[in-house]
# Entry
Amino acid sequence: MNQLQNGHAEPSAETASTDFGLDQIRDFAVQVQSRIASGPIVPNVKPDEIRDYLSSRYDFSKTIDLNEIIADVERMLSTWQVQVTHPRYFGLFNPSVTIASVIADTLVAMYNPQLATWRTSPAANEIERHTLAWLAAKFGLPADSASNFTSGGAEANLSAVVVALTRIFPGYGDKGLRALSASPTFYLTGEAHHSFAKIAHITGLGRDALRTIATDSDLRMDVADLVKQVTEDRNNGFAPFMVIGTAGTTAAGAIDPLPELAQVCRREHLWFHVDAAWGGAAVISPALKQHLNGIDAADSITCDAHKWFSVPMGAGMFFCRDAGAVAEAFRAETSYMPAKTRGATSDPYTSSLQWSRRFIGLKLFLGLAERGESGYAEMIERQTRMGEFLRESLRSTGWTVVNKTPLPLVCFNRDGVDIDRFLSNLQERQIAWMSQVRIGGVPAIRACITSFRTTEEDISEVVAEMNGLL
Ligand SMILES: Cc1ncc(COP(=O)(O)O)c(C=O)c1O
# Structure
């Protein structure tokens, strides 16, 4: 038995695989990227076309050579998909992905580590813990905070609401909401992510428990309206328990006034959650982190690695300063799981929503380790500069920018432009992928720099081609 087999040695060059085929994977990924970048962005396909194709080829009654299937699936993916990693995809936070993160997902699939318990996957659990602790410190959370990777932002937001309910209403865990003497209410703006409506439904709070707070002209939460609604609800016998501030709203990239929200929450004994699913990555940029001031006072934070950290889906993160509340919310005991390892370890199945867990965190770890913090910050700042370039290019050619954010998300419109028709034209001609939003009730085009590969040249060409459509 060599040292690694008995579990005590460090992995060495001798024992670790040296034949991962890194160069081949890298070459293949680079090839795919350049094929995507020079191809169409938006597919033109109807459901029946794909369904007929699949049923004509794959009834699973005979075997097919794996190479042939892979080539076919790749053809389907390259033809029948919005290419979200295209440098002209200005989309809904779906990023281009780093090669390191692609390799990480390949490694994870090969080893298939099970992270439910520490004991089963010590290396993977510690790599996740290490990576999360680094980011928690960037957010200014204390070292004993709890954190875990999630499938995405919606799961992280659900975790936050469950933990908040557990901490604020001690009977909630065992007796449920029906045992509470007053109905809980929670507070966000109309710009917050709509996962919270589902979460209200799933948790049994009910969608009516959501209180929509007014926003100012920059779409940030109006703190006076928050205080007024909390007071009114208390006077009317409700039990306010949580405020959700968003750092980088989905439609317009607005950042709620986090320091003021933190103050209100402290004074009113409300749980303060910050949904920084996209914008949270700005915390590692020396130039941008000031915009997240106040996030260090959050009770819990959502931040997605599969957004601005440029790793493949699904990779969300949940952070919480109250590790005791997290342990209480997700506690589980059963004899069929391996016994807890002694010492300062924790078993993720007892401190998070998932049970069986994929090694989600490797893609962020590998990317960070390869580029370093400053490399990542440069990537984020570069995208921010591209956002500014887009904003200026649009303004200088007669478009009106209708949102205000330091992040690379631009909402814009122009008198006389029918946005539906304009966006269809943009897509049909494969100029770019952008979406439509309503800002203050007014329709606008939304373009977010989600690819670290988007260049000034891409932007100049897109804006010129857009202007040619007018
Ligand atoms: C602000 C915000 N929160 C949460 C989510 C949900 O994240 P996910 O799609 O990773 O579940 C999104 C998705 O875009 C988002 O923009």
